[in-house]
Amino acid sequence: MAKHSFSNQLNLDFLVSNSSKHRNYMALLLKNGAIFLHIPKTGGSWVSRVLWECDLVEKRLGYKHDDFRRALYPQNYQAQASRVIKRLPSKVAEKVGLKPLKQNSRKSEEFPYTFCFVRHPLSWYESFFKFQQSLGWPYWGNENDYTETWHPNAMLNGLGDQDFNQFVCNVIDKRPGYVTEMYGWYTPPSISFVGKQENLVYDLIQILSKLNVEFDKGKVLEMARGHVNSSPKTLINWDEYLKKKVEELEHISLLRYGYTNKQFSDT
After folding, report:
1. Residues 6+ apart with CB under 8 A from 135
2. 170/149: higher pLDDT
């Protein structure tokens, strides 16, 4: 079996701020009304940190790793259904503590500018495996709970294994094409921008520039440079047959998000 690992300019899997503020706030409402959705293992912790450090965040939306639907629509009785569409009726806005939006906000009937990041599906499996191994394979929420304990990785609970290839086989047996399915929860046609973890820094700068918000580009670049090559690369041995099988199952993601097999090769 050949060794495969997705090489990145930045070691972004480990960019988690020491501040609980950064760790706990996943789906974020920005001060200009835009919304950031955090797909696990795609560099979102670093993005969240940048958004907070640049003073662009208004408040948290919903629960950790809320997807597009959960972040944007009120959930019945729940008070923190500050999960909003661009403007709320004044009474509802007051209830969830939102400040009036600026005059240059987009039209009220439009969805807010919403963005997230993805990564190469094969790289996602590697990253999640290494992350879970480091934590002893904890469980993540309840896949059957629509709101409070829902987590996008909950359906992987109990599928862990010390062997990477066995872990991937376990996922395929239960949920073939899992990464493509998960990405789809965050990237419906209404999504404004889907960036790539492999181009995280410059995609984020592009997003903030499109939003026409004030931010210090130099500070963003400096925050990124501080983490270049901060940890040694860990190589994972893919079974070649299994790798090809996963590429087939995740083919839609490879096409939709502009990945090719050449972007995942021997390093």
Report:
1. none
2. 170
On whether the CB atoms of residues 91 and 51 are closer than 8 A, the answer is no
CA 99 – CA 178 distance, rounded (Å): 38
pTM: 0.77
Other C-beta atoms closer than 10 Å to the C-beta of 256 total: 14
Which of 215, 57, 56, 33 has its CA nearest to residue 106?
33
- Tokens found for residue 110: 């439009």
Name the residue with tokens 């955090």: 38
CB atoms within 10 A of CB 126: 23
Query: How far is Cα 89 from Cα 139, in angstroms, rounded to an integer?
Result: 38
Q: Is the pLDDT of residue 101 over 70?
A: no
Burial 65-77 (b: 16+ CB within 10 A, else e): bbbbebbbebbee
The answer to whether 222 and 241 are in contact (CB under 8 A) is no
- How much is the average pLDDT of 179-190? 95
**Torsion sign across C-alpha atoms 237, 239, 244, 250:** negative
